[in-house]
Amino acid sequence: MDQFYLDGELLPVTPDKLTVKIDNQNKTLTLINGEAVDVLKRPGLSKITFSALLPAAPYPFAQYLSGFQGPAHYLGKLEALKNGLKPFLFQVVRPQGWAQSSFTVALEDYSITEDAERYGRDVYVDITLLQHRGYTTKTITFKQEQNQTTATVKQDDRPTTGKTQEQTYTVKAGDCLWNIAKKFLGSGSRYPEIIQLNLATLDADAKKHGKASSSNGYWLFAGTVLKLPAK
User: Fold this and answer.
1) Do strands 100-113 and 123-131 pair parallel, antiparallel, or not at all (unpaired)?
2) Which of 22, 68, 150, 169 has minimal CB crowding within 10 Å?
3) Percent of the chain surpassing pLDDT 90
4) Does residue 139 contact residue 152 with C-beta atoms inside 8 Å?
5) How many angstroms separate the Cα of 153 from the Cα of each of 144, 149, 156, 161?
């Protein structure tokens, strides 16, 4: 059975449908002679949609990491993700041997349905996630020396605590980036560092498996060798 995780929180009932829409940014231009040409651009942000059942009773088909939790627990998690203004990891963990999927996303919106006639005390939520891409800034410092002006460009990087020997890890069936980060870096929330360090490798391996790209780490395959950031 597939398992859906939102920021490490397992949804109790696996949604029966998942839609991932890859946004297109290509443009068609018309030249002076009337000929149309297609300008190819990198894909836009992907949008993920699904509906999830939040049971009001511990049904035998529901799954919990640490005991039964009612709908209010998961609605509180959604509210925290929406108001937290921070990206998080969305994961689909599939049966042993299947490729795992992980996506750095933000909670775009969600709607809550309570229908006593159809669902009793259970709650349905329709969730929309939007792929998140980070960015970096540059600081430019100008210095005046002997009537000459020079500029120094400094890339803002993540703070480091010292030089360490580079580590690598070979992905196995059933792995996901959150668990890899938790095991080797001490916190699952550091998974974006793994994606940033290995994006070219992830994209190359995804193409070997028939994908256009890894969708920023969404597609993860067994046998991929990942570089690990320093602890």
Assistant:
1) antiparallel
2) 150
3) 31
4) no
5) 15, 13, 10, 22
Q: What six digits make up the tokens of 32? A: 């002076």
Residue 214: φ, ψ to 5° = -85, 0
Give the span between the Cα atoms of 63 and 52, in whole angstroms: 13
Q: What is the per-residue pLDDT across 147-187, written as a single tens digit (0 to 9) for each?
A: 555 555 555 555 544 455 678 999 888 788 888 888 888 88
Q: How far apart are CA 11 and CA 127, in angstroms?
A: 12
Whether the CB-CB separation of 71 and 56 falls below 8 Å is answered with yes
CA distances from 150 to 137, 138, 139, 156 (A): 20, 16, 14, 19
What pLDDT does 81 receive?
93
Cα dihedral 57/114/101/44 (nearest 10): -170
- Residues 165 and 168: their CA atoms lie apart, in Å, by 10
Residue 58 tokens read as 């511990």
Cα 51-53-54 angle, rounded to 5 deg: 130
Q: Which residues of 141-156 are buried (b: 16+ CB within 10 A; e: fewer)?
A: eeeeeeeeeeeeeeee
